[in-house]
Amino acid sequence: MKTFIFLLKKLFSFITLSLILISCGGVPEETSSTNSEKKSFSVADVLTMVAHENDITRTLYTKAIVGGGKKQGFKFDEDWQDEKVEAGPLPALFLRGIANDIRKGDVPLGLYLSSDFPINASNQLEGKQADLYKDIKENRKPKHFFDEDTKLYTAMFADVAGAPACVSCHNKHPKTTKTDWKLGDVMGTTTWQYPADSLSYTEAMSVLKAYRDGTTAVYNDYLEEIKNFKESEKPEVGKKWPSNGKYLPAPEVFIDSVRKLSAYITMSSLMK
């Protein structure tokens, strides 16, 4: 019996390690073969996969970096890239930075935020998306459809206020059109677009990599801003988080945490 339990533990460890490796970009040998390229993933499955990782990333950034950082005196501002402003990006701007980085690359993946009560008027929900949002706000289920105007396959996901920092920021913003947001409210949608209805394994991994590269790029931009602080205290960058004091995790520490948290869902999506 002890031998059997030991073998089960070893098997579980192996499976767990495999999930983490694959989610971190490690690809099994057979996926590079011609056969793997014949396997197609629906665009809905791929966009759902990357949307899940985005949820993990934004929640971790919002709660651990912004929420935890504010308790240590760290500042976050919508004009964080202004040389006169010594602050980091707010969660919505962190996502916008990821979207901009993706747009610069070769992967035709679109990403943006929309709302019925946006701070930025350009993010106002309109037309078909505004109609679909009514259902999303009611049942919080995603909507997948082909957008005739853009000729892109589109996926809309509920953007939920998952941290106190989201609520307080939106309620107090000088341009806000709604001041009674509460924790858990659907504040809008995170919308993804892609030009094809199916993707090969390589294309699916390229979508995920484009998102992860964007996350790394924006987080690195934040740390570069910190290096130029003249009046504000500079947190120590390394293995520790703001919950431990005036610290920020290094890029590889932050990204590794995201990958581990999203590993199971990512692997499940790729194994369908």
Description:
The protein is of the alpha+beta class and 272 residues long. The chain has one domain. It is 51% helix and 15% strand. The strands form three sheets. It has a four-stranded antiparallel β-sheet, with helices on both faces. It has a two-stranded antiparallel ribbon with strand order 1-6. Strands 7-8 form a two-stranded parallel sheet. A hairpin with a 4-residue loop joins strand 3 and strand 4. It is globular and about 55 Å long. The chain starts with a helix and ends with a helix. The N terminus is likely disordered.
Number of domains: 1
Structural class: alpha+beta
- Biggest beta sheet summary: 4 strands, antiparallel
Distance between the termini: 34 Å
Record the SSE blueprint.
Blueprint: H1 2-23, H2 34-38, E1 40-42, H3 43-71, H4 91-104, E2 110-114, H5 127-139, E3 143-147, E4 152-160, H6 164-172, E5 186-194, E6 198-200, H7 201-227, E7 236-238, E8 247-249, H8 251-270
Parallel strand pairs: 7-8
Antiparallel strand pairs: 1-6, 2-5, 3-4, 4-5
Helix pairs in contact: 1-8, 3-7, 3-8, 4-7, 7-8
